[in-house]
Hints:
Layout: H1 7-11, E1 22-25, E2 30-33, H2 38-45, E3 71-72, H3 73-90, E4 94-101, H4 104-110, H5 113-130, E5 136-142, E6 145-151, H6 155-172, E7 186-193, H7 202-217, E8 222-224, H8 228-231, E9 233-234
Parallel strand pairs: 3-5, 7-8
Antiparallel strand pairs: 1-2, 4-6, 4-7, 5-6, 8-9
Helix pairs in contact: 2-5, 5-6
Amino acid sequence: MSVINTSAKLNQGIGFAFAKPIVVLSKYCLKVIDTMDINLLQQALSISKNTQSEYEPVQGLAAIDALTRVYNRQFFESLLHSNWQTAITDKTKLAFFLIDIDEFRKFNQACDLQSANYALLKIAKTLKLLFRRSSDFICRYDGDQFAILATRMDEAQAANYAHAISDRVRKLKIQNSASSLGYLTISIGYVLHQPQINEVQLTLVDQAKQRLQHAKERGRNCSVGNEVERLELCFSP
């Protein structure tokens, strides 16, 4: 199999002309990219200022993360606030998922920026395919973290979604030499909570952070929810 460096060609805007899979070689990362993924790679190389998003209608591109095309943190926090107040009034529960890409700093150091951006785009796309309801909100919470807010979800559904997220990211097989599995995985802390009048919305976020930390301590590639012992889903090679 021949290896070709496509960066220059893609930067010239001709990436869509390729009919066969493309092999991209960075310092330590070798990734075979199918034709259907070229659009994502094109975005990773050069984000178009004119690209629109399906999330745009409320506040335009100011609400969208430029790279991943999901909500940015600032807009997401305003959504969290409004949904928190609604949940208090309606006495309903909110599900909050905090997702961290395992060993992403080492992955970023080993690979070039294009490979790191490509990985973030692929994971964001995976989340968008899973959380498609009008009551699901996805954001890029930090550099290598994503957050998801969902309403009308029970304990079993939250656990199933957490399992599905981890499983689909593993199946992406994004190569990562820093991982014992050889590819990127994620850790998830999530919580299902019914807001109370005297509580602040940070309660939800803090609980998810604690569970994410627990997942990291358990060896990463884990999902930890409300009832840690019952809902924890850990995976091994």
